[in-house]
Amino acid sequence: MVQVLKDPSLNEHIGGQPPSVEYLTTRYDTLSSRRSPGGDELWLNWIIRLNAEGRAVGYVQATVRESSAALAWVVGVPCQRAGIATEATSAMIGLLREKLALTTFSASIASSNQASQRVAAKLGMRRSGMMDDGEDLWVVSVSTPESATPEVSTDGGRAR
Predict the structure, then answer these.
(1) What is the C-alpha separation between 129 and 136, in angstroms, rounded?
(2) Are 89 and 71 in contact (CB under 8 A)?
(3) 149: closest CA among 106, 111, 109, 98?
């Protein structure tokens, strides 16, 4: 993931610097517990890989609290604008609906991050009018399994 996350432009909307190998090692060790230290949150973190090559191109994550999940996604610059974030996040939503019966999904998105806003809209999310740590909170609530996973068109059958 260091190769994917080393591009400084990925930090344009969130600030900070690209992570080091040491930071990512510690971070992934913490996340691999799949639970917050207090035990009140479930942490799901997926590395997005292209099927054809197996190389990592980004990640999608969910922080689950009760019947809702806060979602986040990052796709490396060379693979952006190919529907990868939408497809991976949609798959995570589907799993969370099926396995945990979650009904509410949110994402905190910087007002300047139009790409993530497009992903959120494709997932059925809408701006809530609320802010979360200085970012717009986007939310979708679903009540039935049929409406839970947004229909995401694939891009001509290209392997992921």
Answers:
(1) 7
(2) yes
(3) 98
Please tell me the pTM assigned to this model.
Answer: 0.80
Cβ atoms of 129 and 83 within 8 Å: the answer is no
Q: What is the pLDDT of residues 1-54, one digit of tens each?
A: 777 777 777 777 666 777 787 877 787 777 787 888 888 999 999 999 988 788
Contact yes or no for 30/23 (Cβ under 8 A)? no
Q: Which two tokens stand for residue 82?
A: 């190919």
Q: Is the dihedral of CA 22, 160, 72, 39 positive or negative?
A: negative
Q: Domains of the chain (ranges plus CATH)?
A: 2-148 (3.40.630.30)
Does 135 score more than 80 pLDDT? yes
User: Is 109 in contact with 135 (CB distance < 8 Å)?
Assistant: yes
Task: Using the structure block, give the residue that is written with the tokens 């292209």.
Answer: 50
